[in-house]
């Protein structure tokens, strides 16, 4: 069993083993209510995807999880611990890694220096080991090790953003639009790498506009609309749902 079928099989086991839970989360930007009672769960070893149009609340959900935005109501739990008010840098130490939309690499630092920055919470010996792991996952980054991050192609910058996030050895990896702006062949490479990382035991919460690609590798997913979760289920269930097929998969 390989690919999405294997992912689906893994996603149906160990259901009580929660890594992350959002319970009735409300979040605001000033007076704007961006999340309105969001409840989602991510189990250890899963890939869970968040689907929705622009403005649905997907990126805001990731910001709440990573501590960049605190909920006004509700709870965020990591391994059963309430982390709703924990600072973002402490959440990195607790095991939350966030590869944001737009990559956000340090443009004037080299690839190697970007990875070292990602490992700032680690010991020097661990950093060397993890850099080698990232270079194994992303051979292109090894070739570009002394090149400045800002001079990389879009696909290489995305690889670097994911690699930098992995440097913390997180419990859960948050990926925000990893395929955005990439050529189809690079999109395929990025998704294959996400599957590889997951197969090694990494839990992933994926925000992705390319719903078909996301559902092809995810165990489960949620659909957000204007800050609400309107649908949730296994990737197979979502692919077969009429609303998802029409709105996100381009099918009649």
Task: Give a short overview.
This protein is of the alpha/beta class.
Radius of gyration (Å): 17 Å
Which shape, going by the Cα principal axes? globular
Overall average pLDDT: 88
Structural class: alpha/beta
By CATH, the topology of the domain at 1-95 and 205-252 is: Rossmann fold
CATH superfamily of the domain at 1-95 and 205-252: P-loop containing nucleotide triphosphate hydrolases
Strand order of the largest sheet: 6-7-8-3-9-10
Tell me what the CATH architecture of the domain at 1-95 and 205-252 is.
3-Layer(aba) Sandwich
- CATH C-level class of the domain at 1-95 and 205-252 is Alpha Beta
Order of helices and strands: HEEEHEEHEHHHHEHEHEEHH
Explain what you see:
This protein has 252 residues and is of the alpha/beta class. The protein has a domain at 1-95 and 205-252: P-loop containing nucleotide triphosphate hydrolases (Rossmann fold, 3-Layer(aba) Sandwich). It has helices spanning 3-11, 58-65, 88-94, 111-118, 124-137, 139-143, 154-166, 184-199, 211-217, 235-240, 242-247, and strands spanning 18-29, 32-43, 47-51, 73-78, 81-82, 96-99, 172-176, 203-207, 220-225, 228-234. The strands form two sheets. A six-stranded mixed beta sheet has the order 6-7-8-3-9-10, with helices on both faces. Strand 9 (220-225) and strand 10 form a beta hairpin. Mean pLDDT is 88; it is low at 1-15.
């Amino acid at each position: 069993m390989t690919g999405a079928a294997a992912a689906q099989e893994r996603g149906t086991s160990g259901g009580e083993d929660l890594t992350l839970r959002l319970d009735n989360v409300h979040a605001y930007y000033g007076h704007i209510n961006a999340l309105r009672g969001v409840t989602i769960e991510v189990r250890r070893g899963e890939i869970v995807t968040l689907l929705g149009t622009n403005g649905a609340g997907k990126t805001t959900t990731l910001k709440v999880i990573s501590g960049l935005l605190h909920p006004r109501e509700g709870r965020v739990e990591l391994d059963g611990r309430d982390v709703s008010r924990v600072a973002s840098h402490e959440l990195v130490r607790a095991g939350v890694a966030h590869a944001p939309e737009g990559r956000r690499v340090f443009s004037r630092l080299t690839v190697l220096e970007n990875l070292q920055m990602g490992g700032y919470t680690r010991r020097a010996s661990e950093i060397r080991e993890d850099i080698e792991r990232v270079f194994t996952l992303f051979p292109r980054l090894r070739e570009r090790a002394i090149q400045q991050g800002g001079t990389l192609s879009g696909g290489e910058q995305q690889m670097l953003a994911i690699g930098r996030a992995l440097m913390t050895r997180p419990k859960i990896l948050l990926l925000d639009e990893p395929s955005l702006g990439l050529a189809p062949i690079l999109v395929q490479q990025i998704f294959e790498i996400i599957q590889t990382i997951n197969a090694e035991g990494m839990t992933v919460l994926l925000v992705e506009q390319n719903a078909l690609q996301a559902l092809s590798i995810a165990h489960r997913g949620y659909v957000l609309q204007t800050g609400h979760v309107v649908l949730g289920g296994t990737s197979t269930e979502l692919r077969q749902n009429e609303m998802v097929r029409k709105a996100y998969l381009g099918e009649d």
